[in-house]
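Notes from hallway chat w/ T.B., transcribed later so I don't forget. T.B. wanted the structure written out for a chain they're using in a teaching module, and asked if we could keep both sequence and structure tokens in one place. Agreed to drop them here.
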Amino acid sequence: MKIATFNINGIKARLPRLLEWLEETQPDVACLQEIKSQDDGFPASEFEKIGYQALWHGQKSFNGVAVLAKQGLTMEERQRGLPGDESDDQARYLEVEVDGVVIANLYLPNGNPHPGPKFDYKLAWMERLRARMAALWAQEKPTIVLGDFNVIPQDKDVWSPPAMADDALMQPESRDAYARLLGDGWTDAIDTLNPRGGVWTFWDYQRGAWQRDHGFRIDHCLLSPELADRLQAAGVDKHARGREKASDHAPVWVEIA
């Protein structure tokens, strides 16, 4: 099974690029973030035309997550929205089960400007995520938690640590919260297969970042032990970032035996 994550940065604006990537790479499951679409505006019929079913959790103009799975696979929704704070109405989490694999798709808060209430919200969200991941762990099912984590885990995951030193993505608190997830026993698939780092998943639209390869890694795939033992390959479809009207993220994927 090939499972991918892609922060699409506006599903309507990037729909031609998204359909193009899906048809070229044929993931079994594709988790999308930052769809920026209300539920009734989600273009599900466009995905049906190329053989994908969809579940989505939308929000007007901001956030929003969706999961696409090939037709013929069994997909059921398990959880809409991250538990732990009933006042949080941001569309950032959608959990499904596809053919026996639990898939948690997330768009973690950015946290800028730091310090401030947005950074506090980010850290609180990460605490809630850890609690949810502990609950998933306890179920002992093959599980993957993936998406845009908005965390640069280590200095090896960014083109220039000094350039990002003041950003919420690289603050010690953000990194520590991410490290605690790994400490709980989850496997970072890309890092496991690329221990020296130097793998980017995001290049800003500003300052010629793409042309100069000034990127960093914030899109992650975390595997439970039941899936980590079955990891065959993982990678980044970097070419997708270089196309016209592309997202500022590239798709990230894992292949599971």
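Follow-up for T.B.: The longest helix spans residues 117-138. Might be a good example for the class.
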